[in-house]
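Annex B, item 7. Sequence and structure tokens for protein A, then protein B.
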Amino acid sequence: MRICGITDIGCVRTENQDTFRNTVKGNKGFGIVCDGMGGPRGGKVASNYAADIIFSLVSEKIDDMDCEKFKEVFSAAVIKANEMILKAAKEDETYIGMGTTAVAAFVVGRKCVVANVGDSRAYYFSQDKMVQISHDHSMVQELVDEGKITAEDAKNHPNRNIITRAVGAYDSVNAEFFEFDLSDDGIVMLCSDGLTNMLDDSEILFELDVTTDVGECSRTLVEMAKQRGGSDNITVLLISMSEEG
């Protein structure tokens, strides 16, 4: 297993409010990507709070962790991060309204659990195919789910940036979990919407398909998003089941 992540400010923003954390211990791996929001200061604070708290609690228990234990620990960590972000906003009014997405993947052997809050995404690539694993918590996704607009319409919808679930934005929050099996050639990708708003799935799939190194692939994807305008911060974290990849 190999994990590589990269984050970039992009071409427009003056601050990078994305963050990521990752670790590998034996046959277990964990990665998380957070995309902050809420003013010039708050987004960065919120994403770092969430990433640090969740990463710390998962890392602390990872030695004895299986998929069900991960769900339990991650859920508790999200609640703790939510409370900490809300507390910080009460103590400093410049932080009012801040929050963050959180998308994470825990791998043990050939099992993976993805957890997400918000619209940062998790994808799984294997055998020349890529599927989105996470489910966006956003206004446009709700419209897609209700059949009111198409997935293609959602890409350019004026409310595409409105999310319906975030860590630190509401009094309570719950993560959504997805469990699946991994193949020997499998790659899990976690990313902020700074990537997916700039690149089509087919372009991402092509890069994952031809890559022999996930570190190089993550850098290539970020550079491609910047070449398209890089209108937001961009973060990519790749988990490869191949030690060489």
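Protein B:
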Amino acid sequence: MPRVITGRYRGAVLAAPKGDSTRPTTDKVKEAIFSSIQGRIDGCCFLDLFSGTGQMGIEARSRGASKVVLVDKGMPAIAVIRRNLEKLRIGKDDPDLRVLKMSATAALESLKDERFDIVYLDPPYKIAHEEAVKVADILNRYDMLNDGGLMIVEHSSEEPFNTDVINMKLSRSCSYGLCVVTFFSKN
């Protein structure tokens, strides 16, 4: 079960959808990601695409993100995200924490007038590269990343992932077994 590592909701255990349609980020990988961006979280605008359990956006909020948007197109995932937010008593009537039930690209189109500091995406590994390319293109088209903003993609070392065709500057890539986390910044 995913849990909140630190911050306001530290130690809270989060629900996950049943079955294998959602693959929650492991605590080890989540801790590594947040350790590398810890200086950027407080007060940031965080967009969590392919949200699954909502744990990455919830972790960001726990650590002080001022605005969080959680996006997933699956109804089971949305139900779990809402349950997790309700358990933590966050999000209800809070305009700075939103849950959107739609695809990542549809969400980006609907958010095109907003700006984010961190856009995190953890799509199904088989389509991670394709989704990263699409997300980067939309972020650039609408200038949705603030200066110094990051797009962080979780993907598999066993699936092709060509960073050269993603329309952003590659910052770094870190491997955690089969999981790879790749950081991109604005061109």
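Comment on protein B: The chain is about 30% helix and 25% strand.
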